[in-house]
Amino acid sequence: MPFEGVGLIAPALEAHGLSLEYADLYRPDAKLPEVEDAAGLIFLGGPMSVNDPLPYLKHETDAIVQAVERKQPVLGICLGSQLIARALGGRVYPNQRKEIGWFDIHLTEAASSDQLFSGMNPSETVFQWHGETFDLPARAARLASSEACANQAFRLGSNVYGLQFHLEVTPAMIADWCDQDENCGDVRELEGPLDPWRNSERLVVLSQMVFGLWCDLL
């Protein structure tokens, strides 16, 4: 979606001397990018479901399968993590309840030795905006869970990561998401307004660490 940018991923890319090319596949006139020589692929979020019959989601799913076969680093955020799970054989379905706002995630034992997650606290407060979840792909390692959602982060192999939560958001992004027509249904279900700043300072630290370490894989 136009409002689902890379946010705090951008500074990590810049610090590693990496340029970024957006592929806006949702646009009717979009051309499929040539990704064979890319250092890595990032799949971002959106309000649609992985299960919606949208041609561009099929293109993204195919790109994920091919990237994994080429052993390219892949990072999926929210919808992107669900796309990775779906592309690699996992099921995507409604979560027991929506998580919209700031929620605690709890790291697993596998995360304690993970190259991206080992520097995080056993529990961290992160930003969420999702109504669906997924089954882990075969041979994937679960890295984090929450009270309402068992699969919050996973790693497949050494360079494919899926994050159900949003480490990339800034307060301005959160405020903007709340104003988007596509999200108005979710916003109406909230008990009160979201505080974009609630844990934003810690999120900057986490994003620099996790996304910076992912960039080291590129």
Fold and architecture overview:
The protein is an alpha/beta fold and 218 residues long. The protein has one domain (9-215): Class I glutamine amidotransferase (GATase) domain (Rossmann fold, 3-Layer(aba) Sandwich). The protein is built from six helices and seven strands, in the order αβαβαβββββααα. The chain has helices spanning 9-15, 55-70, 79-87, 171-179, 184-189, 200-215, and strands at residues 41-43, 74-77, 92-107, 123-134, 141-145, 153-156, 160-163. It has a seven-stranded mixed β-sheet. β6 and β7 (160-163) form a beta hairpin. It is globular and about 45 Å long. The two termini are 25 Å apart.
Short synopsis of the structure:
This protein has 218 residues and is an alpha/beta fold. The protein has helices at residues 9-15, 55-70, 79-87, 171-179, 184-189, 200-215; strands spanning 41-43, 74-77, 92-107, 123-134, 141-145, 153-156, 160-163. Helix 1 crosses helix 6 (200-215) and helix 2 (55-70) crosses helix 3 (79-87).
End-to-end separation in angstroms reads: 25 Å
Q: What spatial order of strands do you see in the largest sheet?
A: 1-2-7-6-5-3-4
- Quaternary: single chain
Percent helix, as a range, is 25-40%
Number of helical runs? Answer: 6
Just give the CATH class.
Answer: Alpha Beta
What is the fold-level CATH name, i.e. the topology? Rossmann fold
% residues in beta strands? 15-25%
Largest sheet: 7 strands, mixed
DSSP summary, beta strand count: 7
Please tell me the CATH architecture by its name. Answer: 3-Layer(aba) Sandwich
Low-pLDDT segments, ≥5 res: none
Shape: globular
Q: What structural class do the secondary elements suggest?
A: alpha/beta
**Mean of all residue-level pLDDT scores:** 96
The figure for the number of domains is 1
CATH superfamily: Class I glutamine amidotransferase (GATase) domain
- What is the N-to-C succession of helices and strands? HEHEHEEEEEHHH
Radius of gyration: 16 Å
